[in-house]
Amino acid sequence: YGVELGLFSDFNGVPVRAYADLIAYDQNGILSVVDFKTGSYMPDSSMQLGLYATLVEILFGVRPQHGYYYDARNAVMIPSPGIERWTKPVFDELFGKFAVAISHDLFLPNIGMMCKSCGVKEFCYAYSGAVGIDPLGDL
């Protein structure tokens, strides 16, 4: 169906572009979305795959039913249940809220394993408190 498939739509007026590594029918004839992971980080959420599934549904009128992360380091396909909960109304609400937060210069940190490799960690009050920026200072 598609390899490195470029997907574009908008959610609540917010333009969103994504690239799905693989959209294909599995051995049972069920349309599935697969994201290849080459590093050691493996997502603990199906949101990324749900976004791809929702974009495929919007653009092509058919929705992938299953989602998988392919762990390239170990050559293992890992099922990611729950992509059905990520729908256009859910993404409309999320991206709409993101747009409101951005328009108010409100950037909340998502603290976790990826903080060490984050490109803006030196500006993150929650990570290091560096640069003297307190995101709640004016509230």
Rg, alpha carbons? 17 Å
Largest sheet: 5 strands, mixed
Distance between the termini: 49 Å
Shape: globular
Count every helix, treating DSSP H or I runs of 4 or more residues as helices: 2
Mean pLDDT: 86
The low-pLDDT segments are none
Considering DSSP H and I runs of 4 or more, what fraction of the residues is helical? 10-25%
Class computed from helices, strands and strand pairing? alpha+beta
Strand content: 25-35%
H and E string:
EEEHEEH
Features:
alpha+beta, about 140 residues, globular, 5 strands, single chain, five-stranded mixed beta sheet, about 20% helix
Structural write-up:
The protein is α+β, with helices and mostly antiparallel strands and 139 residues long. It contains 2 helices and 5 strands. It has a 5-stranded mixed sheet.
